[in-house]
Predict the structure.
Amino acid sequence: MTFEDLKSALPEPAKDIKLNLSSLANESALTEMQRAGTFIVSAIAARNTEVLRAVLAEFAPKLTKDELAAAQSGAAIMAMNNVYYRFTHLASSPDYRQMPAKLRMNAMAKPGTDKATFELWSLAVSAVNGCGMCMDSHEKILREHGVSAEAIQAAVRIGAVIHAAATVLDANEAFAEIGDVTRAAA
């Protein structure tokens, strides 16, 4: 599936998602590398194979081998961290916030891209996964690295739209089945 196929697969009720995919593919607040990686990490986090294949077809060629590996690594680490830190943040007992995580996170020390870009990608995944503690942490580091609010917002907008596209495509199957049942009943 290509990126154009992805947009075409979105039904009329998701027209805004299709329009947002088009505009965000050219988002000027991010560099081409930042934008490409943000689309990729967001697609990994959205957990929809069709979306991931379309995003990889469009954006993987815009990254070096090391940058693509950094995107994969960032999505993997944040998949783990977002669950763990969301738990420590939401659990009633403060004990867990005081305990060391005891999770390997070596990729964060040598991510394969510059620190700000890796943090930007981590923020996008954290937004998709809904981890407020991680979002706060990555946003703070990004601001310390001089990343603009516009670039941060752009990364989160990409995550939001990719997540929405995945949600719509997942729902399409159920709607198709309902349509088949409706036609058969008529």
